[in-house]
C-alpha cells in the first residue's frame, strides 16, 4: 500500500511540474519581440510579435517594422522547448518556432528553413 501511495504522489508531482513549466513558457513569451527572419528570398525581414496571455494561453499579432499590423496569429502552440506561432504573410500560411535563449533573447526558425533571432522589446 505504501508503494502505491508513493507512485501516485510521484505521478502527481510530475504532472504539476509539467503544468508549471508550460505556464512559465507563456509568461516568458508574453510581451513584444523584435524578430529578425534571416536569409528569406526577400532578404532579412524584421517583424514585431506582440503576445498576450489570456487564460493560460497565448494570443498575438504580427506587425511590420513600422508597427503596421500584418496579421493576427491564428494559432500558438506551447511545448517544453518554446512556442510555435502560426500566421499569414503575403498570402502564405507560415509558422515560426521560437525557443528561449536567455532572459531577453529567442532563437528559432521560419518554416524549418530560415533562421530566426528575437529580442524582447523593453519598455
Describe this structure in words.
It contains one helix and nine strands, in the order αβββββββββ. A nine-stranded antiparallel β-sheet has the order 4-3-2-1-9-8-7-6-5, with helices on one face. It starts with a helix and ends with a strand. It has one helix at 2-29, and strands at 31-40, 43-54, 57-64, 69-72, 75-79, 82-89, 92-102, 105-110, 114-120.
Compile the SSE list and pairings.
Elements: H1 2-29, E1 31-40, E2 43-54, E3 57-64, E4 69-72, E5 75-79, E6 82-89, E7 92-102, E8 105-110, E9 114-120
Antiparallel strand pairs: 1-2, 1-9, 2-3, 3-4, 5-6, 6-7, 7-8, 8-9
Give unreliable regions as ranges.
18-23
Question: What is the share of helical residues?
Answer: 10-25%
Distance between the termini: 55 Å
Largest sheet: 9 strands, antiparallel
* Count of runs of 4 or more consecutive helical residues: 1
Radius of gyration over alpha carbons? 17 Å
Share of residues in strands: over 45%
Helix/strand class: alpha+beta
DSSP strand count: 9
Neighbour order of strands in the largest sheet: 4-3-2-1-9-8-7-6-5
Secondary-structure element pattern, one letter each: HEEEEEEEEE
The chain-level mean pLDDT equals: 86
The best one-word shape is globular
Amino acid at each position: 500500500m505504501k508503494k502505491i501511495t508513493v507512485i501516485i504522489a510521484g505521478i502527481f508531482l510530475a504532472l504539476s511540474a509539467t503544468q508549471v513549466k508550460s505556464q512559465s513558457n507563456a509568461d516568458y513569451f508574453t510581451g513584444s519581440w523584435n524578430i529578425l527572419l534571416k536569409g528569406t528570398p526577400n532578404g532579412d525581414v524584421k517583424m514585431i510579435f506582440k503576445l498576450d496571455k489570456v487564460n493560460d494561453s497565448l494570443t498575438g499579432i504580427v506587425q511590420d517594422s513600422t508597427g503596421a499590423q500584418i496579421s493576427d496569429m491564428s494559432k500558438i502552440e506551447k511545448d517544453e522547448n518554446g512556442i510555435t506561432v502560426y500566421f499569414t504573410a503575403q498570402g502564405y500560411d507560415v509558422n515560426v518556432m521560437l525557443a528561449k535563449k536567455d532572459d531577453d533573447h529567442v532563437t528559432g526558425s521560419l518554416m524549418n528553413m530560415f533562421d530566426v533571432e528575437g529580442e524582447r522589446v523593453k519598455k
